User: Fold these one by one.
Assistant:
Number 1:
Amino acid sequence: MADNNPDSQTRYTPSYSGPGFEWILLGLAVFALDFFTRFKGIDFSYFRSIALTDWRIYINGLTLLLVALYYLFINKEERNPKDMLSFAALVMFLSIIISMGGIGYLGATIHLVFAFSFLFAGLYKIMEKSQANMIILGALFLDFFAFSLFSINKLIFPIWFLLPLFFTKPSRKRSWLILFIVLFYAFHSVGSIVMFGGTQQMLNGKDITDFKDFASTSWKNTKEFGESLWTSTVTGYKRQKNITQAMVFGDYYTSQVDQNVRQPLGVSITEVKSTDPEVYEDEPLIVYSRLTIRTLKEEITIKNFCHAESVLPDSIKPDTEKVSQYDEITVDCMFDRCRFSPGSKTIYFNHAFGFQTLSYLRNYFIDRERMQSMIRQDPNINTPEDILRNIGVYDSNPIALSTNGPIKIGVELEKSQPIAIDRKRDIESFRLGITLENVWEGNIKDVKNLTIILPKEMHLELDGKAEGSYCGGYNFEAKTCAAVFGEENEWCDDDASNIYVLNQTGKNQRIIPAGQPGISLYKSLICRIGIDKSDYDKFLGNAPISIKNFKLIADYEYELQRSLTVNIKKTEYGGGCEKIQEDIGIEETECKDYSPDKNNLPPDDHIERYKNYQSTVRNIVKVNKPQGLDYLKAEALIAAIMSEASGIGNIDKNDNKIPDYLTGYGIRYPATFLDNPIKEIEMAAKFLKTKINSEKDIKLALDSYKTETKIDTFSTDNALKYYTLWKNRLCKGEADAAIEEEEAVPIATLFKKNDLVGEDKNNDGKWTDADQYYFIKGFKKNIDGIWVYLLSDSKNTLLDQMKIETFNYYRNLHSGSYKVMIQRPAQEPAAWEGLLFNPNIELKNGVVS
Amino acid sequence: MKGNKAGKKRSNAFCLFLLLCILIILTSGCDRVYKPERPSLEDIEQGSDGLIIEFIEGAPPPDVIEGSLIQAGIIMENKGTSDVKRGYLLLGYEKEYIKLSSWQGKGIDDRITIDIQGKSLALPEGMEDVDIVNLEIMDIGPQREKADTTIYVTVCYDYHTKGHSNVCVDTDVYNLKPREKACNAADVSLSDQGAPVAIKRIESRMIVSKEGGVVRPQFIIHFENVGDGTIIAHGRADIACSAQPLSTDDINVLKVSAVLSDLPLSCKPELLKLRKDSDYTICTLEEGIDETISSYYTPLTITADYGYMQTISKGISIRKIGI
């Protein structure tokens, strides 16, 4: 009969006093020693092959000896068959490990000693011996075989630390430790990292790095969770407080998001990551941001930026992308090697896209006398709302319905419904409140357009006597449906609507004035709208209750920002960036028909700061494809405009000498540091395409730029002077170009087409998954005039080309434990599409010396 | 004891059997009584309904696609005793989403006229009319997958309620005459009269004239709105089914008239503005009845003329094409 007395059994229960906390510390020590002994266990395939073929391991005398010892000295009184069998299995397993040479490794010996010590001194005291034996047997199997069997990094699951943690005596320290461990694993969002098993017993650098990565991800996620919790709580509270205050004081108008749209519309960032969690200073850094885009029908353009504090990237791909309906894109941001000093760097991704949000407000109108009569006389009607309820309308407090997207448009007319129209008045006037509310975690950068669609008989009322001033100083223009939505549109009806479009050109007031950072919370407008007496009949129509819709359309530019932190490490094997960084400066271009005056250059501090923007400017030049200027002159023109117009005339640095974005570090608007320069550069670049047919047009274009941007401090003459200075600085000059060209040939022809090139990261002399390698598919000069290798079949799919200097660097630098290998195809490919290569460079033993 | 009980049971069963036999014998000699299949006027003048309106099932459909053409069907049954002549049916909808194409055979206006006969001996179930309207569903606009809207149907029509009751004209109010009276004045309760406004109760009073010689029969007539619509003034259906102003004199007003035998009564107020859903008016035979005449029963006919307005609605969801 089973004994139901819990005290009579020695089973583990949470209240049971088990081994002390010291076992946890010992387990932790075993785990720490693994970093030095590099003990990884035994490859299971090796175990399997031996276990199946070499039966001798099962009759190892040691097995019998240990069993005999156990019964002779330890367990004389209790001769329980379960205990004996489980212990025999454990000893047999130990015997196998030893037979396979496990004891020969220091790491393995430490593990075995700890396992049996914990068995005898710990587990035997708190549970049945057979149970304890089986637990240790399982743990040993995991420790020695399972990690290689299941391709799991054993450092991520330190079994000899976790086992004592579970079985030791409950204490507060242990509880905290368990909580910490649970959070450690819970906050690693992806759980475990799947590793590639090795055949040897040694942990390699990658295992340790992966564990560090795992630990750092856990820590980072924990920190980010805490931060986001704090941010969402505090900012959420502040946001709600602001909105509540605004609602009380009446300058916030509500809306609700259209729940009929099944998924959020717009662009959302799903992931921001680095291809490598740890990058050496002399390696290129590639980070990427993954975006999900959803629109209903409309096509949207996404502009992508990235930067690392004051460092601009060397390439952003795609920098602009047009997408529609449902799409996912990945934006790669690449920084060349040696762009960063060692340390932790924050990379910011900014994704700006134009989007449109519509809001609909349904309101009910009734003749005032009719309403009053009904309230007085109809026994079922006591309030105006009852009139609506009487006809089956329960929407007595209509809330604007905003389409799904980054912003909500709140619209309110009158709270009480239906709204009475008094026919005795000459004009019925109402207050139309509009709120543009930022509901996503981004920024409304600019409101490009705001369209108010009123019922036909309603019109916007002027603020005062000022011509064209509506809604608190804004300029709205009456338009037709065709003018706003095109001829094809079937949605807008001129017979039913009065359309007003915000005009923000010239000196007209803007929703977001120039130089302001945008809308992070909300912005409200108050408009007066009215109906003339002569239109009452038409407005109220035929039915007792007239239903009217008010529509608001906002076209705006929204910017999402997300950052990530990358650890830039100092190069361990000599070399580094010290020498190379000296070489990085302004990139020059060969120029035609121009002899630069190298004595007439822009100020040094301008040149110094321009380095940060040059690649951006060059990208923009490339995108805009100037018609009348070559790329050098186009670049010089933008640099000149930047020099003269940057910061829109404002100087925000203490020295007050140099314009903002040649000196600035985001002093005015740190969060949108890149915003203004990029905008300026883009604006300047527009003139390249549209205004300039030859160099003679530059002055006209600059004048036009000044007129359109309204930068009063902008001097066309100064800009022209800067243009010449920058041409001198950016143009190589014929002599320089010739020398450079001669030197470029041997570098560019180091490798041939189909060469397999890469780093032998684990230094085993062959290509494995642990290595980084590429096929060379070609080489060419890119738009900046830099020679690049075109790569394919790269493990890193984001990398499709790399500067030749980068390879040159690898070739020269990684001669320690990393080495660059070249593997040539057996048959030499045919001539390489006219590209130069130097056949005299030979490889020695397949390795570039 | 047991024997006594059993004997009593047997005796009861026998009595029951005997009673059954007698009933069979008595009823077997009866002839079949003629029961007319057509209802009587009393049967017809019952119920609280006037015009009953409802949408045809599935018209309009609950889910539609923008750009499509749909139909809405409205069934109107006149379940009351009054004919609807030149009534109005008004279709209400959001012009943002719906455009009226046409009524089948009745033009393209939001409002159409209706004529539907009520119940009568010749037409005991009343007339039924069905009106179908073709509607065009508009584009719901960008960035939306679905929009909800509602179609309303309002009917406004003139109607009347006619109530009859035999009332006692009691000429000997204080029971002073030696001869026995044929009747005493008493209150009468009535059931609904086949209209949404019902005469619920008639209180009879006999007012003795100061001058002597006559008694003036006076009736307090109680009316109640027993339908689910709104009473409007007679002749104002046109205004009610529009956006035009309605005054307080246009809502919840009955025009009352009464006739005692063939003598018209004077009702005050003649235009009865109901307080809440029910109210009363007092109708008096001003010239009075000679008190020397013996008390007698005579028919009292009461007529209330009014208009009536009812609204029904149905929600529809408009979906975007291709979503």
Number 2:
Amino acid sequence: MNVIECRGLSKRFGRTVALHDLSFSIKENTITGLVGPNGAGKTTLLKIAAGFLRKTAGEIKVFSSPPFNNLKVSANTFFVDDNMALPATLNLSETLDAARRFYPNWDHRLALRLFDYFSLNPRQLHKNLSKGMKSTFNMIVGLSARCALTIFDEPTVGMDAAVRKDFYRALLQDYLQHPRTIIFSSHLLKEIEDILEEVLLLREGQKRLHLPADQLREYAVGLRGEEDTVKRFTAGKEIYRREQFGKNSIFAAVRNSFTKTELQEACAAGLEVLPVSAEDLCIYLTSRSRGGIDDVFNRN
Amino acid sequence: MKPIYLQLSEWLETEILSGNITAGEKIYSQYQLAEMFNINPATAAKGLNILADEKILYKKRGLGMFVSPEAGEIILRKRREQVRARLRELVKEADLLDISESELITMITAARKRNKEERA
């Protein structure tokens, strides 16, 4: 079953196109990573799915219904980001108690344990927390709510590396025990790719790629070496990135449609065959220029 | 870098080869593996399915996956083939550097001796 289904979804803010003709679906009980550069439309998409924003055109269904102004969707969806509207007068412990009454699957024991583990002060007010502590608290509420659709929009803002690691682990553990549909937008693909089942990559409001996460790192391959040799081996292939490297050498990242023998031949011809990480692939696939930032500094 | 599900299936093979999991025994579930290696359970399932396709594991409906009686044999055969393939690569490189066959054999003998010493 699909929890989210989009067909030709578009969203405009005045003249700005935030999402354009987006079609995809998200299966029940999967963890999906939503990635893409700043301004690609990630937050807009998540807010439409959560029912916070109205679409402009196309179709979106969450739990088989249009999400905007929909009680069923909002009861089963939890949206975590860094400006969650929490009651300003309640302290953290009171906020947990209030959240508990809202969500039927709420696990209060988990909430208190996480609260303890991350040494939060129950009497503190949310607005007085540091950026990282705020994110930590929001993450605790998001996990403990155990909503059938849990959306994390950049949940790790301000968290230090140790807390981020703990969070990913907590998310996976809780998901294994209580499978549910989780969407996770992040700029730190390297940190989260292992716990993802699928990756949805957006560029300029459009879908660039939607693949099982473990296929991303095999999707492209890098060849480095003498320019003519690289060109010979990459002829007719889709080139994602091309960088000058020393005097006569270049690096080219291309779609990995090589056979094993072809790659061995490339090695034998003196080329280095390099893996292209999922993170690099996503950067290559969404950058505006094939040479990257170096194009700014290249005068020729 | 190798995809995670391949790393996982190789780890499981090594567990079987070293006798930590024996023929007929139940192997870890995709959820146990996901927890152990901090990976998505779908990725773990891929690793298990590779071994099932190669008849190293077999499925029992509703019970999970088990190590097949021929598992050790199949893994050994596969690993030997991998050694042969790597050896071919090595020989190719040696040819490129004009290393003679006898010199290569001397190198292998020396490497084996050193590994033995390190283990002792």
